[in-house]
Amino acid sequence: MPIDERLRRYPLQGDPHLETLLFQYGRYLLIASSRPGTQPANLQGIWNESIRPPWSSNWTININTQMNYWLAETTNLSECHEPLFDLIKGLSITGRKTAEINYGAPGWVAHHNADLWRQSAPVGDFGGGNPVWANWEMGGAWLCQHLWEHFAFTGDTSFLRDYACPIMKGGGRILLRLAD
Questions:
Q1: pLDDT in tens, 2-18
Q2: For the chain, how many structural domains are there in total?
Q3: β-sheet bridge partners, residue 125
Q4: Domain boundaries, position 73
């Protein structure tokens, strides 16, 4: 039976095989769009046909990027998390300057959007719209949750000590200053 028909019938009678298919499809999307040594999955994945794509094919780190990776550890795709860790590490470097310039604070910060060059400053809609969402400074801190989740699932103390903790510490320092 075609997928569209199965989806239409699902609310009426359920379909555990469709659930399995969609679950595996979600895994496939992450495997296909986030491999070690590549860029992390963004809203378009690797299937973008536009010269000027929506959201510039950047990483929207106010939930979208996080959602792309929620399944990484729980579905045994830990290695697919690596490109996101590289993004977080890059943001922790550029975000130090952003924290210093924008907040006069130690640590690092990333706002709601990041790009290939790991920019971490607030960005807007070219002068349009409400700037409140652009000034949301919790993107970096929220991304750090993925570092912790990786440790929680793998128990890799070397990863925690040598990689995650220094990044999370910097992300925490800015939060302490902002809370002051």
A1: 999 999 999 999 999 99
A2: 1
A3: 128
A4: 34-179
